[in-house]
């Protein structure tokens, strides 16, 4: 098999940027809501408020939208600083409206959280923290300085300073809790999407490698005709040249190598035409050997043990998903091992299990419960650098798609090290039990 592909140092697949059209649409929604609120308060309830100043601020927001729409394409993706500046404008525009309409006494003051929530879903923590700080500064200013809240004519609604302080505290707590929660949810969704994209790349690569036998057969057919001509000419030359000629040995070597090439091409042409051949089906022992072979030169002893409660060993498909998944788990075990790694294959009438154990320090308790999630790693091995934590996620995803159930644990004392177990139902993986049925996983 090919050595497990190292994706731990792969770059992130997604970039944190926002489409301009998204921010424009959200701002139009805010403009519509602010306009409706001013009209209802001023016309329906008849509360006195500085209508010209309010509509001036709303018009400034609408004008910004018009300029952005005319200046840039709606599909344009903004950089992080530009997105943060536009969201900062929204915070300041709303803070100015609140200054004209009662400050923190205005129940719409909590809408200042909205730009921070948008930032938490699309921007890195540093930018979100800057916007949250801007909201807190604006809220602190509005708690002290603001025009009266629009109220019934002749009456002034004045709330105690303690109440306004409580509103400020509630706004601060909401900003922190909702910002952190939104960021975590959005970031986990991005990580899962990126990791799944990496998994698809692995599958595409392995499936591409598994298709090389067909390409080799096609190449063999194409090379057959010129090679036959070379063989014919070499035989004619061998007949024509005298036995004592200094070129006789060269012509004889040319003919033997031509015959060897024809034998190789003949083998290549059979790879794509033998669905039940060696390259499509293998015993469990052959599967384990193909997984173990690339790790034998790492300076760690890899011991293989086979234990079966039945004499008939399972026959499995040569699946790139299983080969890559087990290979990645074994590579991790070799990286963390001190002296040796044990690979044990067990089978019974209804189960097939492959267990990989190492004598390293084992899984840390903080990582053990999250193993298999994307971007979870505790790598600190003899290999250079650390990883992004995609390897185990991809291996787990591929093996589970083949029907396996994975278990991660530490070995029981006095033994040290980690233990990973992959278990299949034998009927789902053993082709000898259903020879007419192909594997239900990527092969």
Automatic annotation (TrEMBL):
PROSITE patterns: HIS_KIN. It comes from Amorphus orientalis. One of its GO terms (cellular component) is plasma membrane. Keywords: ATP-binding, Cell membrane, Kinase, Membrane, Nucleotide-binding, Phosphoprotein, Transferase, Transmembrane, Transmembrane helix. The keyword DNA repair does not apply. It is a multi-pass membrane protein. This is histidine kinase. Its EC number is 2.7.13.3. It comes from the Bacteria.
């Amino acid at each position: 098999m090919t050595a497990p592909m190292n994706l731990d140092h792969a770059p992130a697949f997604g970039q944190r940027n926002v489409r301009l059209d998204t921010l424009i649409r959200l701002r139009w929604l805010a403009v519509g809501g602010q306009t409706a609120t001013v009209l209802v308060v001023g016309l329906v309830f008849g509360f006195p408020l500085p209508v010209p100043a309010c509509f001036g601020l709303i018009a400034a927001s609408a004008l910004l939208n018009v300029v952005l729409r005319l200046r840039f394409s709606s599909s344009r993706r903004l950089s992080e600083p530009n997105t943060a500046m536009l969201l900062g404008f929204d915070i300041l525009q709303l803070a100015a409206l609140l200054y004209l309409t009662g400050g923190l006494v205005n129940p719409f003051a909590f809408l200042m959280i909205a730009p921070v929530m948008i930032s938490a879903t699309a921007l890195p923590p540093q930018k979100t923290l800057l916007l949250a700080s801007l909201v807190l500064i604006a809220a602190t200013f509005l708690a002290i300085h603001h025009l009266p809240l629009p109220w019934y004519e002749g009456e002034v609604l004045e709330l105690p300073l303690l109440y306004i302080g409580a509103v400020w505290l509630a706004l601060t707590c909401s900003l922190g809790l909702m910002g952190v929660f939104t960021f975590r949810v959005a970031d986990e969704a991005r990580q899962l999407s990126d990791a799944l994209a990496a998994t698809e790349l692995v599958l595409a690569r392995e499936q591409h490698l598994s298709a090389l036998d067909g390409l080799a057969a096609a190449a063999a057919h194409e090379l057959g005709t010129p090679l036959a001509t070379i063989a014919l000419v070499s035989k004619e030359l061998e007949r024509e040249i005298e036995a004592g000629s200094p070129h006789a040995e060269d012509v004889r070597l040319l003919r033997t190598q031509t015959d060897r090439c024809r034998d190789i091409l003949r083998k290549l042409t059979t790879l794509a035409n033998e669905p039940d051949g060696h390259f499509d089906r293998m015993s469990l022992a052959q599967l384990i050997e193909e997984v173990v072979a690339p790790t034998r030169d790492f300076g760690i002893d890899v011991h293989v043990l086979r234990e079966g409660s039945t004499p008939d060993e399972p026959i499995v498909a040569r699946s790139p998903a299983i080969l890559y998944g087990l290979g990645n788990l074994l590579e991790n075990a070799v990286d963390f091992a001190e002296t040796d790694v044990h690979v044990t294959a067990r089978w019974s009438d209804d189960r097939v299990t492959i267990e990989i154990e190492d004598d390293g320090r084992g899984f840390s308790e903080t990582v053990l419960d999250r193993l298999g999630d994307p971007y979870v790693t505790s790598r600190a091995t003899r290999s250079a650098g650390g990883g992004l934590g995609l390897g185990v996620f991809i291996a787990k995803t591929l093996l589970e798609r083949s029907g396996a159930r994975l278990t991660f644990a530490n070995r029981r004392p006095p033994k040290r090290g980690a233990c990973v177990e992959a278990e299949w139902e034998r009927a789902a993986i053993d082709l000898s039990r259903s020879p007419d049925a192909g594997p239900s996983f990527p092969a």
